[in-house]
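Annex B. Sample input.
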Amino acid sequence: MKPTIFIDGEAGTTGLQLRQRLEGRADLMLVSINPAKRKDQAERARLLNDADVVFLCLPDDAAREAVALITNPKAKVIDASTAHRVADGWVFGFPELASGHRDKIAAAKRISNPGCYSTGSIALIRPLVDAGLLSPSYPISINGVSGYSGGGKAMISEFENESDPTYTQVPYRIYALEMQHKHVPEIQKYAKLSLRPIFTPAVGRYAQGMLVEVPLHLSLLIGGPSLSDVHGVLTKAYAGAHYVTVVTLEQSKTLKILAPEQLNNTNHMRLYVFGSESGQQARLVAQFDNLGKGASGQSVQCLNIMLGLPETTGLP
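Annex B, continued. Sample output.
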């Protein structure tokens, strides 16, 4: 029998993207709640327990409520919310996190899908910590810019709907000024940092795509590595990965600019090492789609691994 999939919250931004990625697959059976029963808790509980895999595309409190409704020990859950990203008993849904992490995803009943910013941040930082180049206590700063789709329906309306009272034509803005962004705890935990990183996110007036940057002083890293050393660590960490590519130093040197939208509608991520050898400074950059590798694409990748399928199944 085909595995049954239920998306709780399929009307939201991530839910819609997820459904689009799954509905054409002949190897799965998607089930949906009857719109007339959307507020029927018993019907929702039935679908949550009858499905082989449940995706939660919900606000945090609603995601916790959904998990509490699941009593079937065979039901597997992939939660796209922030609710369980640092919770005990949940496996972080970034397959490329470390050697052997795919096996943990394959064996898991509970997967917490990473946030978009944390996917890029961890991809750049974790290999350097694991390799002993970057001290867990290094004062990390992370800068990022995302398309407005990352803010969900409310922010999409704010940028696209001229009749919305909050409509804006601002080209770029920073936010999370209180420095309490919801992605920071997962970044700190899964990048293996002992010192809370500084995270400065921004949103631009474009729909999707993102850049995440981590600047580093090479002289403050362990052993004083070169740009080539840092690049080599990242290259080794993602050797053989389907969706994470480390761009060569030679290619990176030819670039004058880097735009956030180049990988839209894919599940791919490109990592770049820029910098100045003489100035002993590096600028690490992750480029990807906040709705792809940063959300629904990565959820599908995890689903494939959980079901024992090639992780590229159904992904562009």
